[in-house]
Prior knowledge:
By secondary structure, chain A is of the alpha+beta class. Chain A contains 10 helices and 5 strands, in the order H-H-H-H-H-H-E-E-H-E-E-E-H-H-H. The radius of gyration of chain A is 41 Å and the shape is elongated. The longest helix of chain B is centred in the middle third of the chain and has 17 residues, at 97-113. At the A-B interface, strand 2 and helix 7 of A face strand 1, strand 2, strand 5 and helix 2 of B.
Amino acid sequence: MNNRDIPNSFDDPFKQLKHLLLTEDQNRIQQLEAEIQRLHEQLNEKDHLIETLQPVIAELLENKIRNSKAEMAESLAPVMSEAIKVQIRDAKEDMVDAMYPIVGRMVSKAVTEAMKKFAANINQQLNKTFNFSRWFRSLIARFKGVSQAELIMRDALPFEIQRVFLIAKNSGLLVSYANREGLSPENDDAHIIGGMLTAIKSFVETSFSNDDPGELREIEHSKSTIRIDSAIYSYLAVVYNGIPPEDFSKSVRELHENIHGRFYRKLRDHDGDNSHLKEIEQPLKSYLEVTQNS
Amino acid sequence: MNSMNQKKICILGMFGVGKTSLVERFVYNKFDDEYKSTIGIKVCQKLLSPIETDQHKIVQFNFLLWDIEGAEVITPQIQNYMIGAHGALIVSDLTRPDSISVANNIVEAYQQTAPGTPFVLAGNKFDLIAAESENIQQLEELGETLKAPVLLTSAKENNNVEAAFEKLGLLIASS
């Protein structure tokens, strides 16, 4: 500042001195006050704050994720699942487009694995087959009007029997039981399952008796299917996974007919005591073994 | 195969009388104050302590308990659930006289479906009424008419629950 800038009104030398010494500081204070006011507005007013943070928020999150990944995952997980649900609801097409490369790869991997297993099964079938069997298969194929390859493919499809229940038809009490793991019925809740199965069977048969009188023959859930074969005093429930061979129903029927015919009286008089029906367990176990090895 | 003697037991009664509570107290020794209506049926099992019969024979039963949904009227579906039963616990709510009248109808349907098999009348929620209540008298009169034992039970306070099932076991063993 030079003397020309001193206002004429400052006749008082003290005022002149004050002006010379403090004007610069006063100007700086005014600037700082304006700056504080601006920052105050930025922090306290939502719109301003968003505007201020916007350029750095991505960087901030990136740093936070880099430094404490687990902590961020923990905090964001509940919001993420909700956000995904909302996004799927509101922008299904976009989500499908975004997920397609991943899902496509997953499906492709699963199909490849399944095909590998399938091919291994076919190879196994071919390796263990004698020439005579091949000749026999070609005869059956011709008789059925399908190719040999189709027959081999059919035999190679995965199929496994898990459990077999013989249940008293009226009471729903378990008469005999066999399972793949060799567990006792007590350790496998077989008595309760037998009861519930009977209740479900009774419910379906009563509810639909007017429209379609008959008996429940199959229950399907997830990968498992329960095939039911009913006779007068008992019913046989076979729980299996996969696609059953063509003669499966016949084999279940034959097994049951065999047991029912042999133990007809004991099944008719069954009152919950299985001690005199222990012999039935063997045919059930044998059936599991045969179907496992076939 | 274990040679234990299984018996199918039906738990019957009007809705809300405490059938499921009695079963849960007997099987799991637990009680839930919140009322959850049974839809359809729930089957669970309980191995009873060995019982000595009148002929001094020791038997042990594995009770398969069919906890059947409550209803005022016995539907064909409910009656089908009773087929092949070896015994029944017929439950009424001692605070609701109408549930005692319904018990009478249930007994009739049960006897038609599982003739000659024993049943016990349970007057539940005994903890909620006075000992001299008319409802107890009404249930006891029904027991006398039907020649069936009556047990006053409380699933909440665990009174007479096991006794009711043991009584049924004894009746089955001697039938």
